[in-house]
Amino acid sequence: MPLYKLSSGLIHLTRYLHDVILDFPWFSVFAKSGQSSIVQSLSYLILSGIPAQAQIPPQDVIPPSTPPTIPQLPPKLPPANELLNPGKLEPETSQPLQKPVSGDFFVKSFQVEGSTIFSQGELSEVLKPYTNQRLSLTQLLQARSLITQLYLDRGYLTSGAVIIPQTLDDSVVKIKIVEGELEAINILGLGRLQPDYVRSRIALASKKPLNIPRLLKALQLLQSDPLIGNLSAQLITGSRFGLNLLEIEIKQPDTFSSQISLDNSRSPSVGSVRRRFQVTEGSLLGLGDSLSVGYSQTNGSDGLDFSYNLPVNAYNGALNFSYGSASSNIIEKPFQRLDIGSNSRYYDLSFQQPLIQTPSKNFTLGLSLSRRESETSLLNKPYSLSVGANAKGETRVSAVRFSQEWTSRNSRQVIAARSQFSFGVDAFDATINDDAPDSRFVTWRGQGQWVRLLSQSTSLLLRGDFQLSDRKLLSSEQFALGGLSSVRGYRQDFLLADNGLLLSAEARVPVWEKSKTTLHLVPFFDLGSAWNSGGKNPLTNNILAGVGLGLQLTSDRITARLDWGFPLVSVDSRDHTWQESGLYFSITTSPF
Known about the structure:
Layout: H1 7-22, H2 26-32, H3 37-48, H4 80-83, E1 104-107, E2 109-113, H5 120-127, E3 133-136, H6 137-153, E4 160-163, E5 172-178, E6 181-188, H7 195-204, H8 212-223, E7 230-237, E8 243-251, E9 256-263, E10 274-281, E11 290-298, E12 301-311, E13 318-329, E14 341-357, E15 361-378, E16 381-382, E17 394-409, E18 413-425, E19 442-453, E20 459-469, E21 479-481, E22 495-497, E23 499-514, E24 517-531, E25 543-554, E26 558-567, E27 583-589
Parallel strand pairs: 2-5, 6-8
Antiparallel strand pairs: 1-3, 4-5, 7-8, 9-10, 9-27, 10-11, 11-12, 12-13, 13-14, 14-15, 15-16, 15-17, 17-18, 18-19, 19-20, 20-23, 21-22, 23-24, 24-25, 25-26, 26-27
Helix pairs in contact: 7-8
């Protein structure tokens, strides 16, 4: 059964067949030469609409995605007393007064200068037991130490109080606060990465007065950066009291990586088995900028994608530009003789800015401008094969997308959520139609993932995906169900609709471990539903559900997985691919 029927497309297609096929003399050639399968395929299109098998998969016009993986927790840093040496806090003050004083003396009050952390009221309250009485020199130094201890208790380990040289004619003792600061930040051991990348991020957490817990959090956050391998830091005394030097030694990892993968994650209409090769340089110019280039290929498609990410501030705000292009041909019987083809491209320019960054929590806002373009052809001539395309089979989507991402993690679990609002606009020659779907739309997509470690090697993964739209959508914006990273037990993109919901649960239980290699048994359950907006083009089967079992082998360089999914909801399927038999595989290796 077709996923949806294209009434206007059928009328145009019927006219096209009449004008191009029936009126052309080579129609009789096909019949006489026994090549009637082309005519039969065209007749099937006329009678049943454009089925999913005869359409170009939406994967060709959106950036490539990967199946969800368990996020890795950042490595822990050594304890503070091992990581930082605060040095000498108090100066020598053997002669705090201008005139030698013997015995005791009367102190009416204290005058504290130089504090930006504590108010005069807070300081006076601490010194109250030492006012309006006679004090010895030892008691005077004790009063000073109370102020220093107040700073130490708040984490200002390099700040302290000193009694400046003075007379006591008015019985008022002056205490000066020296608030600690960094004299310099020295970076050692970097390779391609420029020192300012590290220095600017540490400087944000080391403003005067220097707070050690805040500095430790910045070091932990820096440790989680993939461009930073292992780091150790030492805080040493500077040229005078209150000044310190921070030395950070970094062992930077190799920033170049490659990945080769083989899986059956593509639609059978263009060949389900995908071969992909990708290379990434994580520090191209030493600015923390990364470049990634990938090439994907199936028996009926070729795709090239490119992504460049550039940090623009010390708060890890970044600009990203992505581009991809793909060409596809339907190779699935009986439509392969119709020479149905497609060319598509996408462009994305985005800016992401974290607003909350700690070792355990992250909240990021993003804004992107995106462009999706595609053209389809039939019998090697431009032709519309999907709702919303013009007579030449062209669609153009321009959109502004606003995203919000939140992550929370600890030693036992990771919770991640992402929300994205997409606003299609009439700009840059976008597709605009009177009634059919076009570039004007509003959608919201919400995604969530919860990973819970049940034991050292056993984990539970729950994830969800939800999309709502205000109107009918072009195929590149629709929600797809079925396949390796969706509802297993069905072919890739079996359902394609304006709105959709996906819920998935799986457990990963180790059954064999040796050295750095682990074999997991993975029982799973997937449930999804999809529906169109406006009450038109209802889906014959709008609910998919599958249950199954998988095996996942993980080592330091290879990850391989085999899943078998059993469909709980019967659908009309041709059962001639691994996907339609419920079998999915993926093999990923990092050769260098």
